[in-house]
Structure formats: C-alpha cells, structure tokens
Amino acid sequence: MSSETILQATNLGRRFRVGQETIDVLAGLELSVARCERVAIMGASGCGKTTLLHLAAGMDTPSNGSVSLLGTDLAQLAEPALTRLRARRIGLIFQDFNLIDSLTALENIRLPLWLNRQPEAPDRLSALVETLGISALLDRMPAALSGGEKQRVAIARALIHQPDLILADEPTGSLDETTADRVLALFDQVIGSSQSALLMVTHNREAARLCERQLILRNGALQPAA
Ligand SMILES: Nc1ncnc2c1ncn2[C@@H]1O[C@H](COP(=O)(O)OP(=O)(O)O)[C@@H](O)[C@H]1O
Ligand SMILES: [Mg+2]
After folding, report:
1. What's the mean per-residue pLDDT of the chain?
2. Nearest ligand to the C-alpha of residue 45?
3. Residue 16, ligand 1, Cβ within 6 A
4. What is the CATH number of the domain that holds 109?
5. For atom 18 of ligand 1, which residue has the closest CA?
6. Which residues, 6 or more positions from 106, have their beta carbon under 8 angstroms from its beta carbon?
7. Which residue, 176, 151, 55, is CA-closest to 94?
C-alpha cells in the first residue's frame, strides 16, 4: 500500500513559444512519487518548477510525455473528469496563492469540500485554522489579508479535503520561521492521517531536509541534490 505510486511523470516535456523562439523548459523529465513520500524540488528561478507543478496538477498540457495520477494518464481524461479528479485528489498551494477575491477566507477554505460534494468537516477545519493561526481572519476578504495570511488560507484550502497529493509551490515563502515550521509539521500530520504524498518546491533548506528526497530541476530534468 505504502509503495503505491501517486504521481508518475514520464519523459515529460513542456515547450513554450515566445515570439519566434521556442524554449524547452522541461525535457525528458522523469519523476515518481509514492504514497506517504515527501519530495522537495529546488532549482534556480525560471528553471521550470512552477511549470512542473501545473503539469502535475493537470492544469497545463505536456508538449511531450505523460503525467499519471493514481495510475490514470491525465491526457486520457476529458473535462469534466479531469477537473473532478484534480479537485478530489490534489491540494495545490499556488505560488501566488490564487484565492478567490469575492469569497471570504472561510469560504475559500471550504471551497474544495463544496466542489467535491464532501461533507463539512468542522473538526478538521478548526484544527487547520488553529494550527495555521488564522482563526481570527476567517471573515476577511482576501484583499484585507497580508501575503503571509493569504498563504496560510491557501494552505488550509489545499488540505481541507484530505488530498492524495499535496503540490506546494514555495509554501513557506511568505512565512516567518515559526509559522513555516508549523506548516511543515501540518503537512506531516496530513500525510500521516490521509496517506498523502507531498511534492514541494522550496528554497528553504530546512524544509527540503525534512523530505525523503531532494531533487534539483536543471536543464529541464530532475537530478538528486548534491
Ligand atoms: N505561459 C508561458 N509562456 C511562455 N513562457 C513561459 C510560460 N510559463 C512559464 N514560462 C517560462 O518558463 C520558464 C519557467 O518558468 P517557471 O516554471 O515559472 O519557473 P520557476 O517556477 O522555476 O521559477 C521561465 O523562463 C518562464 O518565463
Ligand atoms: Mg515558480
């Protein structure tokens, strides 16, 4: 059970066309993430980390190769099956948070449960908001939150539905050290209770060290960190 593959990227490529030029941001990338595994991705700005997470979430289409989630090749799924799979199985913490401006913090956090028609989870919700220190902010609109507060709301939203795969794009980038430690402990807790896997982009060496594997994205592919 614990060796079940959650995410598999095979010969993954993503090419962008910018004017006359094409750039192969990802090329021949291989990655396999098992249930309960934590994988840290590091790499220079612009090397393709966010591109990789978007592909892993089925929010972008590969130019080459494939991405499978829980054994299903995402390219074989048409909408709305893809949206359904993503909404239920993935918790994505975007680099720029992507909160819905017209919803309160609480409504943002509850959104995955509504979309998935999952029951309200008051105990899980209060445990999450307490750990993240956002209990007093739940009625605020995103515009009235600081960057770090938005990031914590986005983290609660990504975890509320107990996803199989947590995709986190620099999830502690806007947080102080103490709060960052709490977030990393929270990931561990969710992985323990939901048997999830974590794929986390981070520049934080401490955070990377807590993961079973540390990989560097360079020249379009992943290699073990030195
Ligand atoms: N939609 C797009 N169109 C053209 N170029 C893009 C697009 N998205 C990303 N890129 C380019 O791909 C490269 C990798 O971007 P990104 O994945 O955001 O890097 P990172 O997250 O590692 O900083 C950058 O050079 C970026 O400009
Ligand atoms: Mg990025």
Report:
1. 95
2. 1
3. yes
4. 3.40.50.300
5. 50
6. 138, 139
7. 151
**SS3 (DSSP) at 204:** coil
What is the token pair recorded at 75? Answer: 């390219």
pLDDT at 3 over 90: no
| 13: containing domain | 5-224
- Report the residue among 17, 29, 45, 50 best suited for mutation to probe ligand 1: largest number of ligand atoms under 8 A from its CB: 50
Ligand 1 pocket, 22 CB below 6 A? no
Pairing of strands 165-169, 90-93: parallel
For the Cβ of 62 lying below 6 angstroms from any atom of ligand 1, the answer is: no
Reference 153, options 177, 178, 179; nearest CA is: 179
Instruction: Give me the residues paired with residue 64 across strands.
Output: 13
* Pair of tokens at residue 191: 């992985």
The pLDDT confidence band at residue 1, using thresholds 50, 70 and 90, is: very low
Q: What is the pTM of this model?
A: 0.96
Residue 43 CA: which ligand 1 atom is closest? 22
pLDDT (mean) for 124-145: 97
* Residue 220 Cβ < 6 Å to ligand 1: no
How many domains does the chain contain in total? Answer: 1
Of 68, 54, 49, the closest CA to residue 98 belongs to: 54
Contacts of 172 (CB under 8 A, 6+ apart): 151, 179, 180, 183, 184, 202, 204, 207
| Mean pLDDT computed over 73-87 | 93
Token pair 């004017």 is at which residue?
19
Cβ–ligand 1 contact at 45 (below 6 Å)? yes
For ligand 1, atom 25, name the residue with the nearest CA. 46
